[in-house]
Every structure is written in C-alpha cells, then in structure tokens.
Request: fold
Amino acid sequence: MTGWELPEALEVAGRSEPIRADFREVLEVIRLLDDSAEPPEARAYLAMGLFYRKFAAIPLAARQPAMEAMLRFLAGGEEDSGPAGPRLIDWQQDLPLIVADVNKVAGCEIRALPFVHWWTFLAWFGAIGEGQLSAVVAVRDKLRRGKKLEEWEREFYRRNRARVELKPRYTPEELAERERLNRLLSD
Reply:
C-alpha cells in the first residue's frame, strides 16, 4: 500500500480478506479487545469475528497473521512502534469529547455519515487541535507524571474531574471481590 488507499480488505496468508472498515465498527472492535471481563483469547476471537466479514472462512493456521493484520489496520497501517505508553484516552469514556472535536475537524456530524473509513477517522482525530479533549488529555498526563498543574488546569480539573479521571476497568473476579468486601463492611 502506498498510503493513499483506504483498504476494505486485508492480505492474510496470501488471501484477500474483506473487513469492516467503518469507524463505528472499528471502535466496537477496540471495545471488544479492551473488555477485561473476557479472557484474552475470547477477546481476540470476538474482535476478529466482528472485524473480518468472513472470519469463519479464515483457516485456523491463518488466525495469528489475521490478528496481526487487524492490529496493524487499527494502528492506521503503521507497524508496531514499541511498547504502548500509559493510557491517556479511553475511546468509550471520551466518546463525547472525541466526537465533538472530530466533528469540528471534519466540518460535519460524522455519526450522520453512512460510512467513514477508520483511517479517515484517524486522520481527522490526529488533526484535532486545542479543545476539551486536548485539555483533558494534558491534565491526565500531568497528573500521571506528578507534574504541577497550572491555575487554569487546576480549575478545569476541579470542574471536570469525572471527565478527566479514567474510570478503572475491573474483571468479573475483581467486581465479585469488591462486592464481597462491601458486604463484609456493611454487616
């Protein structure tokens, strides 16, 4: 690929596999991959089942290359650039901020469009300048690194604490343990 194409199929083990490339479907794939309630193998299987239009036809021996191709597609066609940094954006929690800022860049309501390729969405996302999302991410990053917040950032954080703080994700086991401890404390 030259970077000018918007692929709707990926090369997997010598075969062209059709994919779901609309940003809404890809965000659902990401949600499935991030779902700590499921074991990693189940997450991968469910995500690939949604992402590949003909997932059942992909041979078992090609599932690992299919996963790698899917992850490369999610990364905008880029190769893995090393270990991931700390999580500063949550696609579900930050959805209202992301949509508002991407709408501003795109010049329209993107959710009303019948199809927006994931890479187009990523390009718009990457063009987001200053706005609420960038303010939230900047404050999260400073808090994570233990940096002192400027006066406006402290005020922003005070007024938008629920938006700024990433909600923890718990596995079913962790939720059950929390529930058990809460019952013990309330007795």
Notes: The two ends are 63 Å apart (CA to CA).
